């Protein structure tokens, strides 16, 4: 049996020219469903054009436009809308024809109360599952990222423990951390490990959504609620029913909308824009921000009561620079995945290049590392490895470390080797900036062209594009 919360979301259209039949069906359904009744096929088609329905009960025999023709026109407007035909016992042939035209099923008069409800619940459950399948398929077509979190650092081991514990509850979660640390990935992992995993995970970027569309996008709207609202529309919270909704950049919510979100968290209900009807939902809210909400609470730009409602279970993600040992692990992981995704065969990452990656501060965190690896895979020829010369200047000469110094100290090669490494990279950068034009490069370095040529030979600097 479906839960009451699901039932309360369903809107049923009853189409029959007999007022007794309409009244009878409305009496059976009205306690658990939102019921709309019309007496003609033309009115039914108009209702489907203007409002979202979960199911239609449609009489086969009606004056004017009969049930079969009405079915065809309804399907032309909403091909995925399920229709149960109402048929007399002597109309078996027409009922069978309606199935061929796309009806889900048919019932015969006089109908039994329990048969109606059981049939209806079966249809709605199937419809809900189909919506989820379509959602996950659309996400896959968009290239939705895997929810594997790759790490072996002790800092992330703490996060894994929190994820395992919080996924078993339905408490609200507030994920904090610098931009690019993987807040959405953690949110998806919490959802996928929970009992809600088979239900939708709906992600919303609060910073990217226009202020005037926020309420209608999250809560939906009724026909005529505003200019352009030609039909009723359900919002993200309704779609996420029994699943999870991820509110990224929660700090960007306007104060007036913070109050609306607070009500949803407290009461688990809301109203669509332009409606007074209460819609109840069962949704787990996971929020994220890279801003300290406590500071916003102090200056009055973020509601304290909302903050406490969101921050039931706090998860603070460490930046990549604090995840010891994770850069090489992540670099290899991204390289393997990108090779497969882009049908490439970049051989690997040289030890010197890996040392450079590991010594960089990564202000953009995991996202910056992944984006860099994608660029390297695009630019590096197949069967070759990513080397120092492929890396951008800011990686090679970061404030945190000069490439090679760390490895030179570790192997006891000392200052001479470190100086040679620095010189090689410095000249390489100048050559790249001047598109390997030796005359311009020598002028920039303030040395003779012959000196540059000798340096290039001794340091094994070659332009692979000319080979």
UniProtKB/TrEMBL annotation:
Indicate whether Translocase appears among the record's keywords. no
Q: Known Pfam families for this protein?
A: AAA_lid_14 (PF25601), HTH_8 (PF02954), Response_reg (PF00072), Sigma54_activat (PF00158)
List each copy of the Response regulatory domain by range: 11-124
| Gene3D superfamilies found in the cross-reference section | 1.10.8.60, 3.40.50.2300, Homeodomain-like, P-loop containing nucleotide triphosphate hydrolases
Q: Locate the 4-aspartylphosphate modifications and list their residues.
A: 59
Judging by the UniProt lineage, the source's domain of life is: Bacteria
InterPro entries in the record: AAA+_ATPase, AAA_lid_NorR, CheY-like_superfamily, Homeodomain-like_sf, HTH_Fis, P-loop_NTPase, Sig_transdc_resp-reg_receiver, Sigma_54_int
Q: Which PANTHER family match?
A: C4-DICARBOXYLATE TRANSPORT TRANSCRIPTIONAL REGULATORY PROTEIN DCTD, TRANSCRIPTIONAL REGULATORY PROTEIN
Protein name in the entry: DNA-binding transcriptional response regulator, NtrC family, contains REC, AAA-type ATPase, and a Fis-type DNA-binding domains
